[in-house]
Task: structure prediction
Amino acid sequence: MVEELVAAGATLASAAVVYVMAAARVVKQYERGVVFRLGRLRDEVRGPGFTMIVPFVDRLQKVNMQVVTMPVPAQEGITRDNVTVRVDAVVYFKVTGPSEAIVRVEDYRFAVAQMAQTSLRSIIGKSELDDLLSSREKLNQGLELMIDSPAVEWGVTIDRVEIKDVSLPETMKRSMARQAEADRERRARVINADAELQASKKLAEAAQQMADTPAALQLRLLQTVTAVAAEKNSTLVLPFPVELLRFLERAQQPAGAPQPVPQQPVQAQQQPVEARPQPVQEQLPPPVPRLDSAPEGSNSRQD
Result:
């Protein structure tokens, strides 16, 4: 009798162990458990930790509650201004309703991926190229709203959507580069013109100041000489202003001396003069009388 009781107890213990092993489940911290009893969804969602189910009656399905990072494949489309581009993005989402994510959609990951691709194509067709390149924050918000609207019914919440890259054709890249170069050249010319205008105003003021004080012109000339001499050139060509010569001429005159009155040049009519040979008279010394003695034996007779 005792042996039968011991055997029965051992059998019950073994059955209990087998039952516990079959019914025991462990749900991790980042997971939630959804129980189906005979194919019917239970309202209670099992939290993290150790839990028990009825073997062969209940089925526990775990749902990951972490944020999922899903890359969206590059989608090729035509923008509103007829430019062909390829755009890829990334979607961040998480499950907020475990029961809806299991019951209402077959595979919520695949559903979110397909919705992200179709929404990205729609955004490309509604936007212009400049918006894709510069206004990405606005496009990201619109894309997030388009994906999040149907995903709420699946128990999924879209945290964030980011457009990663926009690929352009090579011809469009060259056109944009030429446009940017032309714009920079235009701004450079405007800046140079503005600088010339300001410099001309300053030079006009400086010229007026030097006209009032002629000594400033000489000082400026000496500064120019100093600046050119610093280059250590062997030849120095320096223009000398006429105003400086007049200033030095006035400075050398005494204070009481009258200022010379400039005379108006008289234009005389020049008539052609014929070149005639002039006789040259040579001044010769007077002739000297010559007294020659008559030779002896001559028959000359002196009258």
